[in-house]
Amino acid sequence: MPPAHDEGDPGTQHSNHSPPTPLIIPEIRLPFSGPPPRSDSDQLRAHALAWAQQYGLIGRRGAHRLSTTPLLELGMALCGKAPTHRAETLVCWYLWALTLDDRIDDGPWAENGALDRFIIAMQALTESSGADPSGEISRFDDPMLVVLADDLWPRTLRWGDDSWRHRLVQHLIQHLRAQATLVRVRETNSALTLAEYLPLRRDSFGALFFFDLIDAAETLDPYEHSAHVEWWNTLREHGADIMAWTNDIHSIAKDVVCGERFNLVSILAQNNGIDWPTAIDAAHQMVNTAVAQFTAVTAQRANHRPSAATDPDRLRQVIRAAGDWHRSVSRYHLHTVGSTTQDNRQVDLELTPPTLKSRQFEIDPYPLYERLRTTLPIVYDEPTDVWLVSRHVDVKAALTHPGVSNNNYTWQIGPLLGHTIVTMDGCEHAQHRALLSPSFRSKALAALEASITSVTTDLLAHMHSRPQVDLITDFTAALPVRVMARVLGLPAETTKEVERLKNWCATGFAYMGNYRQDPALLTGGLSNRDSFYDFIQPHIDARRADPSDDLISQLLTARIDGQPLSERFVRSYCAILMTAGSETSHGALANLIVNLLTEPGVKEAVMADPELMDNALAETLRRNPPLQLVLREARESLELPSGTIPAGATLACLIGSANRDPDQFSDPDTFNMSRTDHTTTHFAFGAGRHFCLGSMLAQMEITISARMLLQAFPNVRWAPGFQPTERGFLNRCPDRLEVVL
Question: What's this model's pTM, rounded to 2 decimal places?
Answer without folding.
Answer: 0.85
